[in-house]
């Protein structure tokens, strides 16, 4: 199953690497997953103490660090698919052959009708995203500073957000088919139940999905590549009260965003492979700079029965950084997440939830969104630790996402996330709609 998925990723992503040129071009980013600890625990990290990626999940965690120095690194890749599996088996060139059929009940006509129905469904909302989030962090929190001026962290994040989708003209999506009637060309409009009613040539040319594919002037295969380099600098301070320790943190991130885009029309004659090669050979990235601000809070309950309980909240990209390019804009919109955790020395339980829906990278008519909730457990056995968890995107059909991770001697860590919902194709069989792999590690003293 995994082998089939990898083959699909290579083939499909190569075949649709092209981006629509738009007068106004905006998209947001998902909250994402940086680092291995949280990735193996259902993505939870906003309230997890001693996190090597506090700069990513919640800058307030910096002042809850129990070690003087902590260093972390992570390399990751994630693939998500939405509805495009429905059309990979469709022969686009065969969608214009219904005029050769002499009856709306013939097998050939029904095949074309079924393929057009699948294509119309996929055109409404679709996405194929390839994301790579990578980073290194250094957190400095000696006891002397924690109790006086606060704690600090610095890092470097390098991420690539690649997205491919199909942008359709909603006015040319009707299922009106042409066939050979008794007195020449005839036209049939397919209703929601699969039945046919008479139509005419004008309606066929003005609003038919089939005709628009023959002309190649209505729909586009779009792709975008966005490289985001970040230098986060964070600070946190703890306010001690009788029953609660209040950790407040803030971080500023210097951003360098590079965008590459192109376009190719979708028609019955489109050679996706050749168009993708042309896009890949261009490699023209337009680069702009900006900055982002994150802020967070984490409460440590200081009561005998709740001593290990923590609550966290983070607001990322508060200032909505915007990159203005010559032919459009890229907005990174605010993200808000709430978390809670139970942090013992050898056992951690955690749960996070997005408080708002975040845009996925797609140019389809109905923009897909992501909103994650997830949690998990970490058991630390000194020489190694093991993690497991579950997460769910309540805005997507990835199914329940199973997560797991293992760390050996600190410096070697592997985390895997896999969705239970499978895409189905005749060419490549079944594969998960969501799959993520991360390799990294961390050490402290």
Account of the 3D structure:
This protein is of the alpha+beta class and 445 residues long. It has a single domain, classed as monomeric porin ompg (Porin). 16% of the residues lie in helices and 48% in strands. It contains eight helices and 23 strands. The protein has helices at residues 2-15, 36-39, 54-57, 107-124, 143-146, 201-207, 209-215, 272-282, and strands spanning 69-82, 127-140, 151-167, 176-181, 184-190, 196-198, 219-240, 244-266, 286-301, 309-316, 322-325, 328-331, 335-343, 347-354, 358-359, 369-370, 372-380, 384-393, 400-408, 412-419, 422-425, 429-432, 434-444. A 14-stranded antiparallel β-barrel has the order 1-2-3-7-8-9-10-13-14-17-18-19-20-23. The chain has a three-stranded antiparallel beta sheet with strand order 4-5-6. Strands 11-12 form a two-stranded antiparallel ribbon. Helix 6 (201-207) crosses helix 7. Mean pLDDT is 85; it is low at 4-25.
List keywords for this structure.
single chain, 445 residues, alpha+beta, Porin, 14-stranded antiparallel barrel, three-stranded antiparallel sheet, 23 strands
Shape call: elongated
The overall number of domains is 1
Mean pLDDT metric:
85
Lateral arrangement of strands in the main beta sheet: 1-2-3-7-8-9-10-13-14-17-18-19-20-23
Helix content: 10-25%
> What is the total tally of β strands?
23
Q: What's the CATH first level?
A: Mainly Beta
CATH superfamily: monomeric porin ompg
Number of helices: 8
Proportion in β-strands: over 45%
What is the distance, rounded to the nearest whole angstrom, between the alpha carbons of the first and last residues? 42 Å
Looking at the overall shape, the CATH architecture is Beta Barrel
Q: How big is the Rg?
A: 25 Å
Structural class call reads alpha+beta
